[in-house]
């Protein structure tokens, strides 16, 4: 089955490696104008080198103000993949707000 995304704009968070990287590459290969977000510039440099023309944005999504600014600069998108996430295990009642922001 060949699914095309020509004329669509896609934003993928957590796109530096793993599942997020695979999703970003698949959308890009399918014709989407793809914006790959990650907090690790080195991962984004590699992704961009492997996929010339893909847009990459280095941003820490746990910093809400910076994340909002980055997304506003990208503009509207047709496809959104919220893949970013970190999980640090700790008892719920001992979880700090900053840790919860990173996990979510």
UniProtKB/TrEMBL annotation:
* Highest rank taxon of the organism: Eukaryota
Report whether NADP shows up as a keyword of the record. Answer: yes
Asked if the Swiss-Prot or TrEMBL record annotates the protein with the keyword NADP, the reply is: yes
Biological process (GO) annotations? glucose metabolic process; xylulose metabolic process
Q: Which Pfam families match?
A: adh_short (PF00106)
Q: Which InterPro entries match?
A: L-xylulose/Carbonyl_redctase, NAD(P)-bd_dom_sf, SDR_fam
Q: Where are the transmembrane segments?
A: none
Instruction: List the keywords (alphabetical).
Output: NADP
Q: Which Gene3D superfamilies match?
A: NAD(P)-binding Rossmann-like Domain
For this chain, one GO molecular function annotation is: carbonyl reductase (NADPH) activity
Q: In which family does this protein belong, per the annotation?
A: Belongs to the short-chain dehydrogenases/reductases (SDR) family.
How is this protein named in the record?
L-xylulose reductase
Q: Which organism is it from?
A: Ridgeia piscesae (Tubeworm)
């Amino acid at each position: 089955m060949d699914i095309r995304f020509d004329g669509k704009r896609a934003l993928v968070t957590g796109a530096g490696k793993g599942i997020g990287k695979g999703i970003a590459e698949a959308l890009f290969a399918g014709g989407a104008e793809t914006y790959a977000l990650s907090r690790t510039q080195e991962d984004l440099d590699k992704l961009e080198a492997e996929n010339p023309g893909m847009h990459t944005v280095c941003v820490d999504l746990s910093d809400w103000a910076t994340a909002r600014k980055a997304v506003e600069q990208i503009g509207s998108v047709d496809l959104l993949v919220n893949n970013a996430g970190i999980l640090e295990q700790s008892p719920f009642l001992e979880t700090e707000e900053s840790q919860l922001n990173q996990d979510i």
